Amino acid sequence: MTDPRHPLYSLKDALRDADVSLDLQEAILGHSTGGGSQANYGKGHSLERKQAALMKAFPS
């Protein structure tokens, strides 16, 4: 993470820079999807998909 004072902002920047979709970014960060019609359908992103996005943002 680039800014130790704001780790969530740095995580958000890293996910954005890795071209992770906004809805997946929000799921990783624990943000609500809002009140749109899609908010109440499905189970959301799997843990494996979230892990893959984090690995893309922070490659070894």
Number of helices: 3
Q: Termini, distance in Å?
A: 13 Å
Rough shape? Answer: globular
Describe the largest sheet.
Answer: none
Task: Count the domains.
Answer: 1
Instruction: Give the % helix.
Output: 40-55%
How many β-strand runs?
Answer: 0
Order of helices and strands: HHH
Give the structural class: mainly alpha
The residue ranges in which pLDDT falls below 50 over 5 or more consecutive positions are none
- The fraction of residues in strands falls at under 5%
How large is the radius of gyration?
12 Å
Rounded mean pLDDT score? 83
Give structural notes.
The structure is a single chain. The chain is mainly α and 60 residues long. The protein has one domain (7-33, 43-57). Helix content is 50%, strand content 0%. The protein has helices at residues 7-17, 22-29, 47-57. The longest helix is centred in the first third of the chain and has 11 residues, at 7-17. 7% of the residues are buried. The model has no long low-confidence stretch (mean pLDDT 83).
Provide keyphrases for this structure:
single chain; 60 residues; mainly alpha
Describe the secondary structure blueprint for this structure.
Layout: H1 7-17, H2 22-29, H3 47-57
Helix pairs in contact: 1-3
Question: Would you summarize the structure shown here?
Answer:
This protein has three helices and no strands. The chain has helices at 7-17, 22-29, 47-57.
